[in-house]
Amino acid sequence: MNIVLRSILATSAVVAASSVQAAQPTPTPTPTAPASFVFDTTTDGTHVGSGNGNALIFSDSKNVITMKATGWTRDFNGSFIASEIVPFIDNGLGIIQPGEGGSGAYHQIDNVNGWEFAILQFSQAVSLQSAKLNTFRLWDRNYVDNDAFIGWNSSNLSLANALTSAQARDLFDTRKGGFNSDSTQFNSNLQTYSRPSTDMSNVWIVGGSFGGPDGQNDAFKLAQLTVTAVPEPATWAMMLIGFGMIGGTMRSRRRVKVAYA
Ligand SMILES: [Ca+2]
Ligand SMILES: [Ca+2]
Ligand SMILES: [Ca+2]
């Protein structure tokens, strides 16, 4: 190999090495793995009001997210009626539809005499991963069944204000999605849904199944919810600004190198 060729090859190697360096991509933000939060609703929440239209407030096990639960009934005329949500410690949350308390109470979340559901408002958007729907037999039935309807929606409503019936109807009617959670799919009361992050919403609806899937009434107590959340938009904005600054610094360093080469 002659000297000229050797020199060209050597130069090419240097150029190749430096282009490899130059080709180093600017770091791009990698999405943080969603964080998991568990709400144990067999603990007594913070009570807001009492009787029909009351609310219970819970924090997750890490004390990051607040969840406000209210109880509702959609009666057979299609009216949305504020109901009482009750913490039955050890069993979970039940709902008492107006007129179903006292002796022979239907204190579960059920779909007898109307469709009962809990509206769960969160302090930030979350995706539901699992729920524990403890079967709880209705006093006048000889079976247990915990088919459920799960829906979700986004809302600007403040957790500090009481929900009106019109707002409850609106949250249900304009929901972004929902599914029937057929209990035959599950071997235990803990039902795993693993909703994708596209279903991230700050309002979730959990009730007895709405119009299906079998002829048996559903009755359960809501004992636990596991949700996931990604960083809030403000956090993302800070991260993007941070990465933008790193990128800017690298670019200006490159310019300096070129200027003094
Ligand atoms: Ca009930
Ligand atoms: Ca009922
Ligand atoms: Ca059923």
Walk me through the structure:
There is one protein chain. Strands 1, 2, 3, 4, 5, 6, 7, 8, 9, 10, 11, 12 and 13 form a 13-stranded antiparallel beta sheet that branches. The longest helix is centred in the last third of the chain and has 28 residues. The radius of gyration is 27 Å and the shape is globular. Strand 5 and strand 6 form a beta hairpin. The protein is built from three helices and 13 strands, in the order αβββββββββαββββα. It has 261 residues and is α+β, with helices and mostly antiparallel strands. The structure holds calcium ion (CA) (3 copies). One calcium ion (CA) binds next to strand 6.
State the order of secondary-structure elements, H for helix, E for strand: HEEEEEEEEEHEEEEH
- Average pLDDT taken over every residue: 86
Strand segment tally: 13
Strand content: 35-45%
**Separate helix tally:** 3
What is the alpha-carbon Rg in Å? Answer: 27 Å
- Helix content bin: 10-25%
Termini Cα gap: 30 Å
User: What structural class do you assign from the helix and strand content?
Assistant: alpha+beta
Q: Ions, cofactors, ligands: which are bound?
A: calcium ion
Largest sheet: 13 strands, antiparallel
Q: What is the 3D shape?
A: globular
Low-confidence spans: pLDDT under 50, at least 5 residues? 14-20, 255-261
Protein name: PEPxxWA-CTERM sorting domain-containing protein
Signal peptide: 1-22
InterPro entries: Ice-binding_C
Domain Ice-binding protein C-terminal: 229-254
Write the SSE topology.
Blueprint: H1 3-22, E1 35-40, E2 46-48, E3 55-59, E4 66-74, E5 80-88, E6 92-96, E7 109-110, E8 115-135, E9 148-153, H2 165-173, E10 177-181, E11 190-192, E12 201-208, E13 219-229, H3 233-260
Antiparallel strand pairs: 1-13, 2-3, 3-4, 4-5, 4-8, 5-6, 7-13, 8-11, 8-12, 8-13, 9-10, 9-12
The structure holds calcium ion (3 copies).
